[in-house]
């Protein structure tokens, strides 16, 4: 169910719009003053915000900037102020769309859906870029975690750096020297032992928690390779 927040000082407009969107199976909250709108943006967690420019206690552009500090959901201005400067200020304040009054509610609903889809797709791509899928494992780059399904495998910083390096080069043979440089920024032959110790600890943690012992292969006398597991 789409959650909409509408902020407008025109009570009649809020009533008409609320009725229309609820008939579209939306969950709607309304505010006729900026301070209430800002509070609802924090607590209601809307999927999209419809915002008028002319609000008595705080203009819509300033309110938009405040809302942008707490959420990145689509914000659509609905305004009778239609000059080029008004529209530019609306977009510069953080809005995703600027719709002139009067408007068609059917078109407005379509624009809401388009903006929500775009936002969802952008967030999904952003999330995908911050993870490496090693089904059934995945590396959460943003939070520095190795996950097995919904379970975290607790790793030291070096163990995490090691699995991340291997995951970024899945299927490729990585030498002891390459690992040494990645983990410590330097490498001499005696560092091979440190690489092997960290690898041993990483493998043991993975196996003890998941029972999987073949995620990382040893490349004899050379290094290691992370492989895709067969389903």
Identify the notable features of this structure and list them briefly.
alpha/beta, Arc Repressor Mutant, subunit A
Structure description:
Helix content is 45%, strand content 21%. The protein is of the alpha/beta class. Strand 11 (216-219) and strand 12 (223-226) form a beta hairpin. It folds into two domains: 3-129, Rossmann fold (3-Layer(aba) Sandwich); 131-226, Orthogonal Bundle (Arc Repressor Mutant, subunit A). The model has no long low-confidence stretch (mean pLDDT 92). The longest helix has 25 residues, at 105-129.
Short description:
The chain has 231 residues and is α/β, with parallel strands linked by helices. The protein has eight helices and twelve strands.
SSE blueprint:
Layout: E1 3-7, H1 11-23, E2 27-31, H2 34-43, E3 48-52, H3 60-68, E4 75-79, H4 84-92, E5 97-100, H5 105-129, E6 131-134, E7 137-140, E8 145-148, E9 151-153, H6 157-167, E10 174-175, H7 176-184, H8 192-210, E11 216-219, E12 223-226
Parallel strand pairs: 1-2, 1-3, 3-4, 4-5
Antiparallel strand pairs: 6-7, 7-8, 8-9, 10-12, 11-12
Helix pairs in contact: 2-3, 6-8, 7-8
